[in-house]
Amino acid sequence: MKKTFVIAFVAAFALSLAGAAQAGNPSRDKILSDLKAQAGGDFSAQRGQTLFQSKFTGGKEDTPSCTSCHGNSPQTIGQTRAGKSIDPMAVSRTADRYTDIEKVEKWFGRNCNSVLGRACTAQEKGDFITFMSQQ
Ligand code: HEC
Questions:
Q1: Which of 73, 87, 123, 130 could bridge to 94 as Cys pair (CB 3.0-4.6 Å)?
Q2: Which atom of ligand 1 is least distant from the CA of 112?
Q3: 125 within ligand 1 shell (Cβ under 6 A)
Q4: Over the stretch 66-117, which tens digit does the pLDDT of each residue have?
Q5: How many CB atoms lie under 10 A from the CB of residue 110?
Q6: How far apart are CA 46 and CA 128, in angstroms?
Q7: Quick one: which atom of ligand 1 is closest to the CA of 63?
Q8: Is 111 close to ligand 1, i.e. is its CB under 6 Å away?
Q9: In the prediction, which pLDDT does 24 show?
Q10: Span 20-36, mean pLDDT?
Q11: Is the shortest distance between the CB of 35 and ligand 1 below 6 Å?
Q12: How far is CA 25 from the centre of its chain?
């Protein structure tokens, strides 16, 4: 009896984890749908990848790219200029990425300014999150 209960519990837990990995996250979905309303178009993971990997000249000299801090791949652990490690940007590696609107807005604000020398548009933010959600 007790054993059956434990097995059922473990199975339910495993299922809920699998569901969370596949079904996306309601907070992230809401952030994306709000961005989509602002952008007025569809998001592209391809454009998000280009934004992540491109080198820009409008921002600070020591951070020409998102990869300057976040590492060359969404799966890698990044590093701040001060040497503090940054969890991977890929949702498959860091499950709570892009689920807190204040955090998302704060860091897009800071980082787009450092790299591009301007704020990112709703389109760019949505493309970026769409790309990272598939990584
Ligand atoms: C100067 C270093 C640096 C650069 C360059 C940088 N970032 Fe970041 N980024 C950080 C740090 C530090 C954090 C906060 C720590 C964390 O979220 O793990 C962060 C967090 C973020 C977040 C919040 C993620 C979340 O969990 O909600 C987003 C979005 C983001 N960065 C986007 C970008 C984009 C887009 C670029 C390129 C245009 C970029 N970053 C370039 C350092 C950087």
A1: 87
A2: 38
A3: no
A4: 999 999 999 999 999 999 999 999 999 999 999 999 999 999 999 999 999 9
A5: 10
A6: 9
A7: 5
A8: yes
A9: 81
A10: 84
A11: no
A12: 12
How far apart CA 27 and CA 12 sit, in angstroms, is: 23
Contact 10, 91 (CB under 8 A): no
Which residue has the least CA distance to atom 9 on ligand 1? Answer: 107
Cα–Cα distance measured from residue 76 to residue 124, given in angstroms and rounded to the nearest whole number: 21
The two structure tokens encoding residue 54: 């491109």
Q: Is the CB of 108 under 6 A from ligand 1?
A: yes
Rounded distance between C-alpha atoms, residue 105 and residue 52, angstroms: 17
Angle (nearest 5°) at CA 94 between 27 and 99: 15
pLDDT at 1: 60
pLDDT of residue 33: 96
Instruction: Indicate if ligand 1 lies below 6 Å from the C-beta of 81.
Output: yes
What CA–CA distance (Å, rounded) separates 71 from 77? 7
Contact indicator for 114, 59 with CB cutoff of 8 Å: yes
The tokens for 86 are 């940054």
